[in-house]
Amino acid sequence: MNANRPDATPGHPQAAPGAAAAPGRVVLLTTSHRVAPGLLSWPAWQALHAADRVLCADGAHPQLPYLREAGIAVEEASPTAQELVDACAGGRTVVVVATGEGEPALTDGLARLAGTGRLTMPELELLPASYDLPGARLLDLVQVMDRIRAACPWSSRQTHKGLAKYGIEEAYELVEAIEEGDRDELREELGDVLLQVVFHARIAEEDPEAPFSIDDVAGGIVAKLVHRHPHVFGDATAETPEEVKAHWLRTKAIEKQRTSVTEGVPLGQPGLALAAKLASRARTAGLDIPLPAVEGIGYELLALAVRAEAEGVDPEAALRAAARAYRDAIRQAEG
């Protein structure tokens, strides 16, 4: 019993006649383990201070020290549904600080009691005391990856080089999901690509000479995005996508200090994509470079890739679309 309640303190008025029949109220208080303990919403603190009793089945719940520091008397108890209904009799309010599982046994028991129709049930309120911020589940991924790296015989032996092929495969599968328009597949493939990032960052933590973490990776890309978007985070202005691209290229040129527009173009990418990227760099730099006057299929493909890039067409995507149509034609002929 909370000693701060009027009905538990000498000298305060007693409950009004007929209050014993009032069913009372159960408040199921849920919190997120991704938010620092003690950071609760104002409605949660109000409910806790106003409650007749505050119960928690987990004596090691991370919120308990902060609740008790705030003057909340928390009882370590795991009542049955019937016991909870009885505790609310007389119009009392009982707050249950939910464990990580959310107290499914208790809520199921209350639902069964309500279904009998024999009891006047207390009001049941689900009160989220803390909310996950966007991106909070990324913390779960980092924790899971850390445990896998430490405990899995396969994952604990992987290196950056050994995982490189999976990064390529996952990137292609992501592109395929995008082109197929499959939303479920897209979500899954984005997760697989994200796993590669977190996995490599976890491996990088163990480097004896130049370690870095997922926070360093995220911090680096945040700094880059802010710096390259002065029209969003600074005083610059950009009204069109072309102006945004101009900002990006100017800041990138200052950062990289490259001597050639071809620097930073990965030569290991697929041929059509490589040709289109080189053409894009040359066109953006205002360079009018004639194509090599050499005969051969490779140079014909180069010319087609440059033409596609000039017309705003991704040659790789165009060829994949044509290849899928060819695949469908083969299947139709087979069947």
Structural write-up:
With 335 residues, the chain is of the alpha/beta class. It has 13 helices and five strands. Strands 3-2-4-1-5 form a five-stranded parallel sheet, with helices on both faces. Helix 2 links the parallel strand 2 and strand 3. Helix 5 (137-151) packs across helix 7 and helix 6 packs antiparallel against helix 7. The N and C termini lie far apart (76 Å).
Summary?
By secondary structure, this protein is of the alpha/beta class. Helices cover 53% and strands 7% of the residues.
Q: Strands, helices and their partners?
A:
Elements: E1 25-30, H1 42-50, E2 53-56, H2 64-69, E3 74-76, H3 81-88, E4 93-97, H4 104-116, E5 123-128, H5 137-151, H6 160-180, H7 183-204, H8 214-227, H9 230-233, H10 241-256, H11 271-284, H12 297-310, H13 315-334
Parallel strand pairs: 1-4, 1-5, 2-3, 2-4
Outline: elongated
Task: Kindly state the number of beta strands.
Answer: 5
- Hey, roughly how much beta strand do the residues contain? 5-15%
Query: How are strands sequenced across the largest beta sheet?
Result: 3-2-4-1-5
Number of helical regions: 13
On the 0 to 100 scale, the average pLDDT is 88
Measured distance between first and last alpha carbons? 76 Å
Radius of gyration: 31 Å
Order of helices and strands: EHEHEHEHEHHHHHHHHH
Low-confidence stretches: 1-20
The share of residues in helices is: 40-55%
- Strand-pairing-aware structural class: alpha/beta
Largest sheet: 5 strands, parallel
